[in-house]
């Protein structure tokens, strides 16, 4: 999934979001997060809340 934050503005202490601002992609936002399990869902929600 993509997070609609500008590159350099996301506080990602676990470093799970990838900066895709310089690559082509179908989503909106400058960060991509791969969700493979539910163990990081709470942390991913905290990343999403940073742009709300």
Give a verbal description of the structure.
With 52 residues, the protein is an alpha+beta fold. It has one domain (2-49). 17% of the residues lie in helices and 15% in strands. The protein is built from 1 helix and 3 strands, in the order βββα. It has one helix at residues 41-49, and strands at 2-3, 17-19, 31-33. A 3-stranded antiparallel beta sheet has the order 1-3-2, covered by helices on one side. The chain is globular and about 30 Å long.
Give the key terms.
1 helix, globular, 3 strands, 52 residues, 3-stranded antiparallel β-sheet, single chain, alpha+beta
A few lines on this structure:
With 52 residues, this protein is α+β, with helices and mostly antiparallel strands. The chain contains one helix and three strands.
Architecture blueprint of SSEs:
Blueprint: E1 2-3, E2 17-19, E3 31-33, H1 41-49
- List unreliable stretches of 5+ residues: none
Number of helices: 1
Give the H and E element order.
EEEH
Number of strands: 3
- What is Rg? 10 Å
If strands are numbered along the chain, what order do they take across the biggest sheet? Answer: 1-3-2
* First-last Cα distance: 16 Å
Shape summary: globular
Number of domain modules: 1
Mean of all residue-level pLDDT scores: 91
